[in-house]
Amino acid sequence: MNHKRTIAAAALAMALTTVVSAPVHAAGKEKCYGIAAAGQNDCGNLAGTHSCAGQSTMDKDPGEWKLVAKGSCESMGGMLKDEAKKRYEEKKRNG
């Protein structure tokens, strides 16, 4: 019984460490849309056609993003999420 408690405690500690450290890793960063090279995006896109990193198929797709230092996105030629969403919605409406 003691062995099961040890395993459960270790699993809980691991889960809590992951949850607590994830926001710390992203601190001082922001999602920057439209700057990722093909296959270099950080996660899912605005279109919802994929949900994983490295699955973008074209350079500088406005629906794909990379995590960059906060405040540096626009100077890199990218856009923040609100602007990217506006452009994506306009593109959908206009075909």
TrEMBL record:
<keyword id="KW-0732">Signal</keyword>
<feature type="signal peptide">
    <location>
        <begin position="1"/>
        <end position="26"/>
    </location>
</feature>
<protein>
    <submittedName>
        <fullName>DUF2282 domain-containing protein</fullName>
    </submittedName>
</protein>
<dbReference type="InterPro" id="IPR018740">
    <property type="entry name" value="DUF2282_membr"/>
</dbReference>
<dbReference type="Pfam" id="PF10048">
    <property type="entry name" value="DUF2282"/>
</dbReference>
